[in-house]
Write a structure and sequence with these properties.
There is one protein chain. α1 runs antiparallel to α6 and α4 runs antiparallel to α5. This protein is mainly α. The chain is built from six helices and no strands. It is globular. The protein is 85% helix and 0% strand.
């Protein structure tokens, strides 16, 4: 897979995540089950993009194992979200929090691999990783939130995850060895 294709896929995944976040922010009264569908599809696409990029470019990319781990965890959580609508609606804050914590930690750890390799812009991944992990932790603090508050929080988190994917796409030229 070419560098351009990888960049485009990451940016598309990021745009979809940002769009899903905006939908949640614009329609706070939306049914919880539709939110789980939006979340599940956005997470599935994001995870598949990470796995495909790992499969085609792992020999040429710095820290590619972390991309694979992030992709696998994202796909597994998305399948759980898509397959268990009613259960997911009840446990959405916990599932979403786990995803953000796992994704944030992998981005955080990956940033130090990038620093060790002398990649410029590695600090962005550190900052985004910390923000995502903190956001995931905070979603565990108040699991019984109103629908409006939940859609707002989820919308903001999806936008953050989308921005992380877009930043990954923009910096992917620096990730190749």
């Amino acid at each position: 897979m070419s560098r351009t294709t990888s960049r485009v896929l990451w940016v598309i995944a990021g745009v979809l995540l940002v769009m899903a976040g905006i939908v949640c922010l614009r329609n706070p009264g939306a049914a919880l089950t539709s939110m789980t569908m939006i979340l599940g599809v956005a997470m599935l696409f994001s995870g598949i993009v990470d796995i495909v990029i790992f499969a085609t470019a792992h020999n040429y990319m710095a820290g590619s194992g972390w991309f694979l781990l992030d992709g696998i965890l994202t796909v597994l959580l998305s399948l759980f979200v898509l397959g268990n609508g009613w259960f997911t609606a009840l446990t959405l804050p916990f599932i979403f929090g786990m995803w953000l914590i796992f994704s944030g930690i992998t981005k955080f750890v990956n940033s130090f691999d990038l620093q060790r390799l002398g990649v410029r812009g590695w600090g962005w991944f550190t900052a985004i990783g910390v923000l995502l992990a903190c956001a995931g932790f905070f979603s565990f603090l108040s699991p019984i939130a109103s629908l409006v508050a939940m859609t707002t929080v989820i919308g903001v988190f999806l936008v953050m995850q989308g921005i992380a994917s877009i930043v990954r796409g923009c910096f992917s030229g620096r990730l190749w060895i």
